[in-house]
Specification:
A: 116 residues, mainly beta, five-stranded antiparallel β-sheet, B: 114 residues, seven-stranded mixed β-sheet
């Protein structure tokens, strides 16, 4: 069946280092891949998304890479800060007008801990 | 500019009781989504609603669960005859355009069934 999963459940880094969070997916029909951040006791917060026909997209301090050959998605955070400590989820979505549009499918999550 | 509001934040129900979870979307948003999160797991989609319409309810259990988003007032997720397995965090999200990638989540309602 469809699934979006993560390789590593936890990641610990030092403040100022770069972080890389990985995600494997199995549904090649997804049109968008998205990263969300969830802090303790809060709802998820959108970080960045990438369309399935792109390889790379950059935001502020974050970069998302998509490798469709091996069905792999990663989130790179530059100069990681203590405020980046959270659980990070990858998710997928479908194109507007198609079935399942708006029904985000989330992966298990990776816990990122940033040490000062 | 208030974000997505959910209440109550914490809800305790005994087995067999009913649970009503409320969600007020962000101002100007007419698309609402409900997700359930079990401990140590990701969010699972339940239902997508637009004002007075259910767009996709493929993630809703067939029995005991229902959702509505009336013309006026908040969206309601209703769970009848709760069981211990219903204990989870329930998150509501909203978006301005339909089905977008950027959904704005509320703080969640943590339901505990005793």
């Amino acid at each position: 069946g469809e699934s979006v999963g993560l390789h590593l459940p936890t990641l610990s880094v030092q403040e100022g280092d770069n972080s890389i969070i990985n995600c494997a997916y199995s549904n090649s029909a997804s049109d968008y891949f998205i990263w969300y951040k969830q802090e303790s006791g809060k709802g998820p917060q959108f970080i960045i998304d990438i369309r399935s026909n792109m390889d790379k997209r950059q935001g502020q301090r974050v970069t998302v890479l998509l490798n469709k050959t091996v069905k792999h998605l990663s989130l790179q955070i530059a100069a990681t800060q203590p405020g980046d400590s959270a659980v990070y989820f990858c998710a997928e979505n479908k194109e507007a007008g198609g079935t399942s549009y708006g029904k985000l499918t989330f992966g298990q999550g990776t816990i990122l801990t940033v040490h000062p | 500019n208030a974000g997505v509001m959910q209440n109550p934040r914490h809800l305790v129900r005994r087995r067999g009781q009913e649970a009503r979870l409320r969600c007020s979307p962000m101002k100007g948003h007419s698309h609402v989504y409900w997700y359930r999160q079990l401990p140590e797991e990701g969010l699972k989609f339940m239902v997508y609603l637009q004002k007075e319409n259910i767009i996709d309810e493929s993630g809703m259990p067939k029995e005991r669960f229902s959702a509505e988003f009336p013309k006026e007032g908040p969206s309601i997720l209703r769970i009848q005859q709760v069981v211990r397995g219903d204990s989870a965090a329930y998150f509501c999200a909203s978006s301005h355009t339909g089905g977008g990638n950027e959904q704005y989540f509320g703080p969640g309602t943590r339901l505990t069934v005793t």
